[in-house]
Amino acid sequence: MFGAVQLGAAAACVVVLVPMGMAGWHLSRNKMLFFSGALFISLAICVHLTPYFPSIPDFVTSVSSVVVFDHRTSCINLVNDISWQVNPKNASSRLHINATHDLDLYDKRWGWSDSRKFKACDFQKLSRPDASDLLNGSWVMVAGDSQARLFTLSLLTLVLGSGSQRMDSVRADLFKRHSDYSILVDEIGMKLDFVWAPYVVNLTNLMTDYKTQKSCPDVMVMGAGLWDMLHFNNASHYEFALRMLKTNVVSLLPLSTELAMNEPVVGSVPIKSSSHLFWLGMPVLINGMLNTEEKREKMSDAMWHAYDRALGDSKLLRQTGGPLLLLDSQSLTWNCGPHCTSDGMHYDGAIYEAAVQIMLNTLLIESHQRL
């Protein structure tokens, strides 16, 4: 691209030569002599300035790279914008709507808009073969509370197939109370680790462990907040913990290109420049549906919004200059609505399926791949 010096030189030439040429044209009695002189001066200037200007191919390439970058950025900003259609499955379901929160009574469909800007991004629901190809040979880590566990279940359901016999044992092992879980999908060489980490400090310690080991996953999805809200109930404490997490995540990056003005991060460990980092946001809490009085008292709408502001103020997310891309559970659960949850906190599998597809589409964009 043109630098400041190049633009200044070009502007100077225009400012000096154009008035000079116009005056010379009117004052010169020998037009041929004037043209000859003007041509000689122009060629001399061009020869001297040529080394300071990019070649045409380089210029075209640089412009193309900016266009591609802008396209990727705009698509990543749009990938969380999903619309829902939630309707009773049949006439008999309508009779039970006010008497039960049975999620099976509703048909839930989701998708991206068909407007031009969304079509340009080519978002799509990846099939099992597509997801397997994308994650082939990858090490995936999901860490957090029950929301992260449900996200893990949805990802494995996609990769292994919902009807596979293996999924029965996966569900049994994955949902052992407050425990970690690991699986190797031999068919595609994908390793997946679920780490029970209900508090942000657990995530920070996990990042410290990866830094010590000088090895970290290709894809990291993490999220915490609900346990902090219930047991600490202090948004300022939560924000401080998130800032500490951000510091530890940034220290994993080999170069802090966007986070530290193109300077290496102090104490950074050259692990993987290709690691993809995601934050699984908190879902909308429907206070009246929460199943204990303690939850209804401590996890109020006001406290939820205070925690949401703390996340923004911590600068952890990419949209605020941080390292993690948001998987926007707030938007997903809000748009799906109360018919998508039975306890006001844990949602229907369709929510986590959508979050998985958002992550996969983001991976496609960031890795410059197309299916």
TrEMBL record:
Keywords: Membrane, Transmembrane, Transmembrane helix. It is found in: Membrane. The chain crosses the membrane at residues 6-25, 32-53. It comes from the Eukaryota. This is Pmr5/Cas1p GDSL/SGNH-like acyl-esterase family protein. It comes from Hibiscus sabdariffa (roselle).
